[in-house]
Amino acid sequence: MIEKKQFYIDGAWVDPIAGTDHQVIDPSTEDPCAVISLAGEADCDAAVAAAKAAFPGWMATPVAERMALVEKLREIYKSRAEDMAKAISMEMGAPIDLARAQQVGAGSSHMDAILKAASEFDWIEPLGDHAPNDRIIHEAVGVVTMITPWNWPMNQISLKVIAGLLAGCTMILKPSEESPLSALLFAEMIDEAGFPKGVFNLVNGDGAGAGTALTGHPDVDMVSFTGSSRAGKLISKNAADTLKRVSLELGGKGANLIFADADEKAVKRGVLHCMNNTGQSCNAPTRMLVQRDIYDQAVETAAETAGKVTVGPASDEGRHMGPVVNETQFNKIQDLIQKGIDEGARLVTGGTGRPDGLNRGFFVKPTIFADVNNDMTIAREEIFGPVLSIIPFETEEDGIRIANDTPYGLTNYVQTQDPARANRCARALRSGMVEMNGQSRGLGSPFGGMKQSGNGREGGRWGLEDFLEVKAVSGWT
Ligand code: NAD
């Protein structure tokens, strides 16, 4: 079993001052695979003090020097991609091929995109005729607490840490206690790249302990959080006493509007997208809204597609679906599937219990419900598992109304071959992102939500701006 109890604070690996042991469980086997330490308040104080001391120097470091260090980090990250893929696969259950291509791949693509944005960014911006003697200086917010979830660990860490570093912020990263191993590897890479001490600090911990200490700490200027809407609300309240900037990337319940004229692969694509990463993606299209004329055929295609998804341990090579992250999540999904049945949705494939032949590990059957009503629990709650709800609709107006009838507003999807309709839907859908006809978001494009999906934007220029103050200077010469 791996033992990694130290934190990375002020440029060194240090023993916890007030830590408690925590076992990381491999979700494919249900066996412990590592022991880490959960930080106490004294550890968090030490990390914040290091970030605070490092801030003036790092903020004043020229952007080109900050970029050069991030470029070095990117090279180290690429050279250790396989170690990273294995860590992610073990800690949160992503099949190894997916961990390599998508999980680790996303981390490095974000580094590329944010570096590009930083090189093109107008750090000192003229205002033209509006105010010819003024300039906007885009300047680092300060000390940032970064809190990340377990579902796409390196995707989230890269989006926050790279943008924060390039903006000139110093930081304390607290990754999810479910996926600390990849974050610890990342801290090793930061150390190897040679960032000045205190610029990046890492403590492990849970929400109630380190999470609360770091989001309420008076010397922290900003919290950048990705996780559940539930935790986002608690963090906003905790950060309110010191009026910190709070950037939130929260949950979703995306609708995938499939019109009768959609391309023939739309349903299959929607099912596979929903099941990707075992359904554990904030932007998963979990509500498939299908126009009545093609409804029966779509339900049949969806069931057939889900029926062909194979499930197995994360370490197996080849395309398949792994387990969900932990027992709590497994039980929650089982309860929600049962609720779907009890509330009258039609189960067309999957259901409760583990897939055949898998008696151990947090494996869930790829599950499709048809005839779902948007008021049912499975259509309202973020399930975070491989469960798709199919809902019929009649007209465009009807489809948009159902899609928008949710507290979330992260990503919605539209499938139609009518460009005018596609554009009308893109405008009418209340979400931070709309993806049409299988076109996925470009990496330089902003990622973030509306409503209870949060208020932050990550990726590209917008990701940088999240960590920057706008300072207006008049009389610039
Ligand atoms: P979670 O909210 O339980 O935990 C996320 C992180 O917050 C963890 O590091 C956890 O320790 C910490 N945390 C929990 N409670 C806290 C508190 N009170 N104060 C401070 N920190 C706290 O979420 P999760 O189960 O790890 O991740 C899944 C959730 O993340 C889903 O809701 C998913 O939609 C969301 N998510 C959103 C995005 C996005 O960009 N919008 C991306 C990925 C995941």
Automatic annotation (TrEMBL):
SUPFAM superfamilies: ALDH-like. It comes from Roseovarius atlanticus. CDD domains: ALDH_CddD_SSP0762. This is Aldehyde dehydrogenase. Keywords: Oxidoreductase. Belongs to the aldehyde dehydrogenase family. The keyword Membrane does not apply. The keyword Transcription regulation does not apply. PANTHER family: ALDEHYDE DEHYDROGENASE (PTHR42804), ALDEHYDE DEHYDROGENASE-RELATED (PTHR42804:SF1). It holds the Pfam family Aldedh. Residues 13-473 form the Aldehyde dehydrogenase domain. One of its GO terms (molecular function) is oxidoreductase activity, acting on the aldehyde or oxo group of donors, NAD or NADP as acceptor. InterPro entries: Ald_DH/histidinol_DH (IPR016161), Ald_DH_C (IPR016163), Ald_DH_N (IPR016162), Aldehyde_DH_dom (IPR015590).
